[in-house]
User: Fold this.
Amino acid sequence: MQISASILSADMANLIAVTAGLEHAKVDMLHFDVMDGNFVPNITFGMPVLAAIDRCTPLFMDVHLMIADPLRYAAQFVEAGADLVTFHLESESDPKETIDAIHQAGAQAGIVLKPGTPWDAAIPYLEMAEVVLVMTVEPGFGGQSFLWDMVDKVTSLHRYIRQHNLPCRIEVDGGINVETAPYVLRAGAEILVMGSYLFHQANLYAAVQQIHAEAEKFFSDKTCVPDVPANGYSMKK
Ligand code: DX5
Ligand code: ZN
Assistant:
C-alpha cells in the first residue's frame, strides 16, 4: 500500500513546509491535481508550480491531469518533474498516443476512469499503463464523499489484472480516509490518494502511521473489515 498525498487541500502559501511535512510523514508520493476549467469545472495549477515544488523535494511526483487535451501537455509535465502522469480516458486525446508520449518523455503512465466510466473501458490499455486510477468521487474538487459503488469497480479491475497477470497497479482518488481505506484495499487498490483527510489532521505524521496501522491490521486479519459500513453499503460478490 502506498499513500499519495493530494496537495489540493494543503496550504498553498506554504508549499515548502508542506513538502517537508510530507517527507517527514514518509508518504510515498505527492499527488498533483491539474485542472483546466474545461474538462472539470475548476482551475488549479500547472507546469511552473510543479517544477517549483519538484525543486524543493525528492518526493515522487504523481501528476493527475484533469484537462481536455492531455496529449498536448504530457511531455511538458514530465519535463517539469512528473514521475507518473495519469490522464482521463474521457479526455479528447487518443489514450495509446498519450501513454506513448508519457513513456517517451521518461515517466510512468496511468489511465483514469471517472465514476460513470465502466471498468472494462480500461482493458485495452492495461498492458501499456503502469497505473489505472479509479476516481472514487467526481473529479474537480477535494473534500467530497467517497462513492461506495466504486468498490465493485476496483474489485472487477483487480480480478482482470490478476487473471491476466498484468503489471498495472490500481490507484484510487477521492474521499479516502481511515474508514474507507480498508474497503479499497480489500478490493485490490495499492495506491491511495488522500487530500482533505490528511491535511485536516493536527499531526500528519501520526495520521500516516494510523493509515499504515489500519492497512497492516487489515492484511493480517481480513475479517476486521465489516461487510456493511454505517451508510448501508454492502459488498456485492
Ligand atoms: C479530485 C482530485 C483529488 C482530490 C482528493 O478531483 O483528483 O485528488 O484532491 O481529495 P480528497 O482526498 O479530499 O477527496
Ligand atoms: Zn487527483
Q: What stands out?
A: Residues 6, 31, 33, 64, 173, 193 surround zinc ion (ligand 2) (CB under 6 Å). DSSP finds eight helices and eight strands in the chain. Residues 20 and 64 are 21 Å apart (CA to CA). The helical segments are 15-25, 47-56, 70-79, 95-105, 150-163, 181-187, 196-199, 204-220.
